[in-house]
UniProtKB/TrEMBL annotation:
Keywords: Kinase, Transferase
Organism lineage string: Bacteria, Pseudomonadati, Pseudomonadota, Betaproteobacteria, Burkholderiales
Name this protein carries in UniProt: Xylulokinase
Domain Carbohydrate kinase FGGY C-terminal as annotated: residue spans: 248-429
Record-level Gene Ontology MF annotations: kinase activity
UniProt keyword Kinase present: yes
Family label: Belongs to the FGGY kinase family.
Pfam families xref list: FGGY_C, FGGY_N
InterPro entries linked to this entry: ATPase_NBD (IPR043129), Carb_kinase_FGGY (IPR000577), FGGY_C (IPR018485), FGGY_Carb_Kinase (IPR050406), FGGY_N (IPR018484)
A single BP term in Gene Ontology: carbohydrate metabolic process
Amino acid sequence: MRFLGIDLGTGSLKLAIIDENGRETASASASYAVTSARPGWAETTVDAWHSALVNAASRLPANERDTVRAIGFSGQMHGVVPAAADGRALRAAMLWPDTRARDLLDAWGLPQPNPVAPGMAGPLLRWLVQNEPHVAAETRWALQPKDWLRAKLGGAASASFVTDASDACATALAMPSGAWDDALIERLGLPRAWFAPLAASHESGGALSDEAASELGLRPGIPLAVGAGDTPCAALGSGLSSDGDALLTTGTGGQIVVMCDEAPTPVHGLHTYRAATGAWYRMAAMQNVGVALEAVRGWLGYASWPEAYEDAFAASASASVSFLPYLSGERSPWMNPDARGGWLGLGLDDTRGTLMRAAFEGVAFALRAGLDAIRENGTPLDSMLLAGGGSVDPRWRQLLADALRVDLHAIDCPNAATRGAAILGGIAAGHWRVDDLAALAPGATLAATPRADASLDERFARFIDLYKRVEDWFTPKRKSA
């Protein structure tokens, strides 16, 4: 008996099959582009997602696919797919790095229980109503990415149009509990009917259609678990289950997640969201991790990541060069969609290795700024699990441990969010119960222990000072409004 997890990420789709003991037996992935037709836009067509799914599934062993008994879903959070009544997407999906709605955030007012970012469904839908009224008029469902994909695989049956609390609570249109905030939705001028009813992440949200089964080489009629956002799925797949358990994930963006038995007090710059299991988590969410490093690698002309790593970590850390990685605005802790980045302190003797090394440090410092916000609000973290495709190189892991001042334990699971999605599928199929999850935690290996480094601490202090000094450059209109 096998269970399939689908993780619909920002730049790629990943699949993983796990067995009845939660062990991964097969995996595959396929990438796609995030396009920007105009400055600040971030979109992907749903056809690209579907093609990537079919492509990746074709590379899973046929004998593994034959034994899949349920599918679970993990998806990039915050963005939105405007869809017709039959689930047909009416335009490209608008994604979380998108900043087109940054001038519409004042409508939320203050205080809000969670920070509102322009790439969340709420601001994006307000932009849609104002700028693409023809699309808004045809819209029946405003779907989260993973909910669109599940509806597509279910043949757009009525049972497929649901969402879960972990995704809903991150739209800026719901309470931290995940329940839709009807009064807010009405005040923003959005149709309440656009928003799908809630179901538990592990409940069945439809069944695999004959057409989708044929495309993917799976059995028709198997249950489709509702699924959860990628961050709560990564927490589930990594084995986070107890109050205070913490996880750092590094991918396109970066998240620091701390599990909570009860809803934590709202804090500016941090998020309080629902977990895939119905518990809670506090999160610092940083937009510029892999996306910033990938941009720098391209700018500096490195043909491959091994070459970039080698050059960066062969270079000594510069005492004068700082890199702000905020290429697409930033969430935690600054909540500044207008933030931008770059190098400062360059000299004629600096090399591209110096610049690449400064970029790694800048990303690590951005993560540290988010972690310090969590620490300053009552959670003294000194140890975290580590997951994500952007944290494999041991030199990068060591820099992260040094900058964050934590022991990092790499989980023995290459696809944490995908594994979490597959586990939700197993619960939907009746193989596991939520009470069984602690026993499914993967192993973890100590990857890096922080080393005392006064010069690194000085560079971090300079990084924070630099951001605060240049912040007004990025946001003159917002500062004067």
